[in-house]
Amino acid sequence: MKTSIAVRISLAVLVAFTLSSISCAKHSPVGPDAWRASSNAPERLSARAPAATAEKTLEGDIGPGAHYVISVPGTWNGDLVLYAHGYTAPVFPVGLPPGEEVLVDGLRALALQGGFAFAYSSYSQTGLGLKDAAQRTSQLANIFSDLVGEPSRTFLIGTSFGALAALKLVEDHPGRYAGLLTLSGMIGGVRAEIDYVSNVRVLFDYFYPGVLPGDLYELPAGFDLQRDLIDPATAAIQANPQPAIALTQIAQTPIPFSNGLELGQSIIQALALQAIELQDLLERTHGQGFFDNTSTIYTGNLPPELLADLNNRVARYSAGPAALNFLAKYYDPTGDLRIPMVSLHTTLDPVVPLFHETGYQALVDERGQTANFHRTTVERYGHVMFTLDEIVAGFGQMVGLAARQPAP
């Protein structure tokens, strides 16, 4: 089942579809000017970030391509903030995702201003290298201790895909960390995200047959994201929006939107993410299927006859054992949360939808760790679309909760 198709994607297009994009809606191919013109769009983090300089800056490499930066303020309070960055699409070189530098610079300035040391590292892999992302972030803590000194407390901040890597560290080694802040985190797990975008693809093919080339596991030779996916999907939705609306009514595809523009953006966002990650995912699963809807009964607020036809004719796929093992290990969260975690998430996130939050909430509740999970949802469309004040409040809440924790 493994495909060797090379997906040709222009830089301008792909920036709009990386999991860690600071403002996915702002670059949307469906209607970019509509967002740029919005007076309600939140400012970027660095717009009002306080000026702060590091007395000491250290840089180096952890592993192949994994470059770290450590910043220590002149008056260090003894605490360290480790940052885990978001998803870097496989067509980009190893490093921070395009566009995320602004967020990193803003978080670094805020940490230094508060007396915290700040450190981040790129990963050695692109794509869904969750194991590598967690390993590089953990190694960075050890490097900091060797070069600077043992911190009194270590806090984690993770964005999008990086939030899941940070969460794995917290669940596996709670004694090493004092608190976690996630920004639009994929905290429901990789499988939840893969299932979502896969369901969007198979249901789009049902509602708009023949519009997209290939299928869930196969893309044609020379596939071009703009020409072969974004343009035809946009045209199909604009010409006939009723099937797109029906797609949103299915329980397995909780597509976030509040208007027609956001509806198209969110559907195309999911379709593009599925196509971008396809090759990388198949390589990690040894070519085995990673999505299984063989026994799925699609339900939702639709006429019974339509649901019956859908369940009868929708394409069915099965997952292999290697794929299921990969998705479980890297990573299905457990909900065993032993330290304070603060999450910020927009209600209408088209990249990492809000079901990640509700899914993790259920896991935490099952483990009896509800008191450690503190959710803040922001009524807004977009991915990692937070104001400076919202991020500052989240960081302050995390630190405050950690201060009230009993000593180990």
- According to CATH, what is the class of the largest domain? Alpha Beta
Major β-sheet annotation: 8 strands, mixed
> Gyration radius, to the nearest Å?
21 Å
Query: Separation of termini?
Result: 50 Å
Class per helix and strand makeup: alpha/beta
**Spatial strand order of the main sheet:** 1-2-4-3-5-6-7-8
Along the chain, the helix and strand elements come as HHEEEHEHEHEHHHHHHEHEH
Enumerate how many helices there are, as a single number: 13
CATH architecture of the largest domain: 3-Layer(aba) Sandwich
Strand content: 5-15%
Helix content: 40-55%
- Rounded mean pLDDT is 87
CATH superfamily of the largest domain: Alpha/Beta hydrolase fold, catalytic domain
Descriptive terms for the model:
13% strand, alpha/beta, 13 helices, eight-stranded mixed sheet, Rossmann fold, 408 residues, single chain
Can you tell me about this structure?
The protein is of the alpha/beta class and 408 residues long. It contains 13 helices and 8 strands. An 8-stranded mixed sheet has the order 1-2-4-3-5-6-7-8, with helices on both faces. It is globular, with a radius of gyration of 21 Å. The chain starts with 10 loop residues before the first helix and ends in a 5-residue tail after the last helix. The N terminus is likely disordered.
SSE blueprint:
Elements: H1 11-15, H2 32-36, E1 56-63, E2 66-72, E3 79-84, H3 101-113, E4 117-121, H4 130-147, E5 153-159, H5 161-172, E6 179-183, H6 190-207, H7 225-239, H8 242-248, H9 260-284, H10 304-313, H11 321-329, E7 341-348, H12 355-366, E8 373-381, H13 388-403
